[in-house]
Design brief:
- The chain is built from four helices and five strands.
- It is α/β, with parallel strands linked by helices.
- It has one domain: Glutaredoxin.
- The radius of gyration is 12 Å and the shape is globular.
- The mean pLDDT is about 95.
């Protein structure tokens, strides 16, 4: 399951979570974002031990700013309130999976 992350649920979904969290910052008009989105969905289905979230940067500018997102897609892995991995731009599924291992 992929969670739509907003500034309203950020604390509950990210800060109060003890799992690894994969966060995909995207926009609906972004070509590379459209390419990575199904990969993120597959990772969510195949890895129930990981929380997977997506952030629409056009709707959640505050969260994008908090993570320093300058280009999209930007993908972060967070554990214990700390960013432990990040990738900017399209990445193949194998590279995304390596980020959460």
């Amino acid at each position: 399951m992929v969670i739509a992350l907003t500034k309203d649920n950020f604390e509950n979904e990210v800060l109060n979570c003890d799992k690894k969290i994969l966060i995909d910052f995207y926009a609906v008009w972004c070509g590379p974002c459209k390419m990575v989105s199904p990969l993120i969905d597959q990772i969510a289905e195949e890895n129930p031990d990981i929380k997977v979230c997506k952030v629409n940067v056009d709707e959640e500018e505050e969260l994008a700013s908090k993570f320093g997102v300058m280009s999209i897609p930007s993908i972060f892995v967070v554990k214990n309130k700390e960013i432990i991995a990040e990738k900017v731009g399209f990445a193949p599924k194998t590279e995304l999976e390596a980020m959460i291992k």
